[in-house]
From TrEMBL:
It comes from Sinocyclocheilus grahami (Dianchi golden-line fish). InterPro entries: Leu-rich_rpt, LRR_dom_sf, NACHT_NTPase, NLR, NLRP_HD2, P-loop_NTPase. GO terms for molecular function: ATP binding. PROSITE patterns: NACHT. This is Si:ch73-168d20.1.
């Protein structure tokens, strides 16, 4: 006899209520999987979260708005607009803490150095927030393993010891901690101390347009600027960063507002060259009270700034210099954005070579700089190189001829273009290849990109299955995909030649996409993508892959990473058995807060692994809403464990598929009892059993 159960054994009223919830859930926008949080609410638990938030880590690229968020938080608190229950907020930028890295002092003495009005009181009795901005600028290691343990706020120690003990909760355990950083430095904070990770993502398309329309009063001019930004993919991508929107608005408002016809900048070098011209004129008018620029004085100032920018870039430091009086910081000087520093550094380097070096050709000079950038492990010379090759073009030198006279004539760019292409063919890392393509773009060369675009067009969109591409062609394909007009909401890797080289070359695309579908892949590289702090991957489909135990274990290592934000995981028909499933579920138990949907259809997990899965469902941090276990050979014991887990923690799961399993009489009874539970949130429960 065939039994089909789907939302049965419930009253009509319960059925109507659940159908209404289904209709409501279907009307939601399922594409937005991330949870936006206002900066004033970062310490507040989300609905369904029981664990208090003590430590928040906020990451984001330079200029994206991290410091602005910190300032807004502090200002709103100070004005009584938010967080009125907080008694003290201590903003302590890492840049300023660097000045005290050689000193020995207590936490109370450190606070009194920055906040002279403080009195020695017992801060454990008050709600206190410490905000540390700019972890990437901290110049000492945060040794959480070996630093001495400190419990007393009056005991002296080095600043790094004070910081590690404050973050670990040894000092002022009731205090809340907020750390803001660039992504590359985020791994300095061990995951076990972080309760929430947030990311400042910058402007999306509507926000970009809104920024320009608010910034520029002339609406027609604003619309023209928005249209121009959208026409240049390079500028469009950079305008995700608010600071770059300001740079673009400053330049384009001046240029497009003038009556005379001028070539509108389309590359980064052109944009920053125009910014230099605009700011030089503005400085002359606003601060010198003159109409005409003093060319000699302007050259002297720009060279001085360029020298400082280059020297500090060589030290991998964004700070220019500062003046210190006693222990209290009085003056801080820095560029408005790291990219501005990199442009000044490139301009200084280029002018120095053009003026002083008589033995080496411009091409040889640029070749050396290309090699130096490729050897840089942290990529701090990437944008510098893009500006440098851009400045080698005669057209860009012409833009700056009002400020500088080039003593050496420009050379044909063909030779350096070919050299950059040869480096791409040597198969550097995907990130290095992408930057080299950006360099070609600054040199107005798109030959490799056009070659791949033509090839794609001839075969239909992204149809490269079974095709063998050269390393240079793979790099070009990655560049095309990352700089395409559409955001990478979905990327189907199964359409490509699925070799190990393919996955390694396309890893930046997998990281940047929100959804990736793969068949058989090299899971080691995939685990790297999942555990990357910059990964945007939210949905992964590995269905019909013969993962075996080793593959599942490596995948589990990626899922176990605190940086993994995967929300949908599909592993249907992957030959996963008890041992592999146990490793997978154990990883999910250790990192349960993001996954919303798990599909394990047509695998053989076994009752012991299903019991582990039940433990996951019982975890109050588990947010699983959809669980697919069709044809998983789950017997009476496993089904009973699942039912009991859902009775224990019924708040999240909305859909459960147990078709083609063997729940037995006790399993059927428990599942039926579950549906009768008034706290049960299941909207869809499926099981089909065969009674022979």
């Amino acid at each position: 006899m065939l039994y089909i159960a789907e939302l049965i054994s419930v009253s009509q009223q319960q059925l109507k209520s659940r159908l209404k919830r289904i209709e409501t859930s279907l009307s939601r926008d399922r594409k937005t999987l991330e949870t936006p949080i206002k900066c004033n609410d970062i310490f507040r638990s989300l609905p369904g979260q029981d664990k208090p938030i003590r430590m928040v880590l906020t990451k984001g690229v330079a200029g994206i708005g991290k410091t602005a968020s910190v300032h807004k938080f502090v200002l709103d608190w100070a004005e009584g607009k938010a967080n009125r229950d907080v008694h003290f907020v201590f903003p302590l930028p890492f840049r300023d803490l660097n000045l005290m890295k050689e000193k020995q002092m207590s936490l109370m003495e450190l606070l009194c150095c920055f906040f002279t009005e403080l009195k020695p009181i017992k801060y454990d009795d008050y709600k206190t927030i410490f905000i540390f901005d700019g972890l990437d600028e901290w110049r000492l290691p945060l040794d959480f393993q070996n630093n001495e343990i400190l419990w007393d706020v009056t005991k002296s120690a080095s600043v790094d010891v004070l910081l590690t003990n404050l973050i670990k909760g040894n000092l002022l355990p009731s205090a809340l901690i907020w750390i803001a950083t660039r992504p590359a430095a985020a791994n300095q904070i061990p995951a076990e101390f972080v309760d929430r990770v947030t990311e400042v993502q910058g402007f999306r398309d509507p926000q970009r347009a809104e920024y320009f329309r608010r910034k520029i009063k002339d609406h027609n001019l604003a619309n023209r600027i928005v249209a121009h930004i959208q026409s240049s993919r390079s500028l469009h991508i950079m305008c995700r960063i608010p600071v770059f929107c300001w740079i673009s608005a400053t330049v384009l408002e001046k240029m497009l507002g003038e009556a005379k016809s001028t070539e509108i900048p389309k590359t980064l070098t052109q944009m920053f060259a125009h910014l230099l011209i605009v700011q030089t004129k503005l400085k002359t008018q606003k601060y010198d009270g003159k109409c005409d620029v003093d060319i000699e004085q302007a050259r002297k100032s720009i060279r001085s700034l360029g020298k400082l920018a280059f020297q500090q870039l060589e030290k991998v430091c964004t700070q220019i210099f500062r003046e210190e009086f006693g222990l209290k910081l009085e003056k801080v000087y820095s560029f408005v954005h790291l990219s501005v520093q990199e442009f000044f550094a490139a301009l200084f380097k280029f002018l120095s070579f053009a003026r002083e070096n008589k033995k080496s050709s411009m091409t040889d000079f640029l070749k050396r700089e290309v090699d130096r950038s490729l050897q840089s492990e942290n990529g701090h010379l990437d944008l510098f190189l893009r500006f440098l090759v851009g400045l080698s073009l005669k057209s860009n030198q012409t833009l700056l001829r009002g400020l500088f006279t080039m003593t050496r004539s420009s050379q044909d760019p063909c030779e350096i273009i070919e050299y950059i292409k040869s480096k791409i063919r040597e198969n550097p890392s995907p990130e290095k290849s992408i930057n080299l393509f950006h360099c070609l773009n600054e040199l107005n060369d798109q030959s490799l990109v056009q070659e791949v675009q033509t090839y794609l067009s001839s075969r239909g969109t992204h149809r490269l299955s079974g095709v063998k591409l050269s390393p240079a062609q793979w790099s070009a394909l990655v560049f095309v995909l990352l700089n395409s007009a559409e955001d990478l909401d979905e990327f189907e890797l199964r359409q490509y030649d699925l070799s190990e080289e393919c996955l390694l070359r396309l890893l930046p695309v997998v990281k940047a996409s929100r959804k990736a579908e793969l068949r058989h892949v090299f899971i080691l590289s995939l685990a790297s993508a999942l555990s990357s702090i910059s990964s945007s991957l939210r949905e992964l489909d590995l269905s019909d892959s013969n993962l075996q135990v080793s593959g599942v274990q490596v995948l589990s290592a990626g899922l176990n990473s605190p940086h993994c934000k995967l929300e949908i995981l599909k592993l249907c028909n992957c030959s996963i058995r008890e041992e592999g499933c146990a490793a997978l579920v154990s990883a999910l138990i250790s990192n349960p807060s993001h996954l919303r949907e798990l599909s394990l259809n047509s695998n053989k997990p076994g009752n012991s692994a299903v019991k582990l899965l039940s433990n996951l469902l019982e975890d109050p941090h588990c947010k699983l809403e959809k669980l697919q276990l069709y044809d998983c050979s789950i017997g009476e014991e496993g089904c009973a464990a699942l039912a009991l887990a859902l009775i224990s923690n019924p708040s999240h799961l909305r859909e459960l598929n147990l078709n083609n399993n063997e729940p037995g009489d006790s399993g059927v009874k428990l599942l039926s009892d579950l549906l009768k539970d008034p706290h049960c949130k299941l909207e869809k429960l499926q099981w089909v059993i065969f009674d022979e």
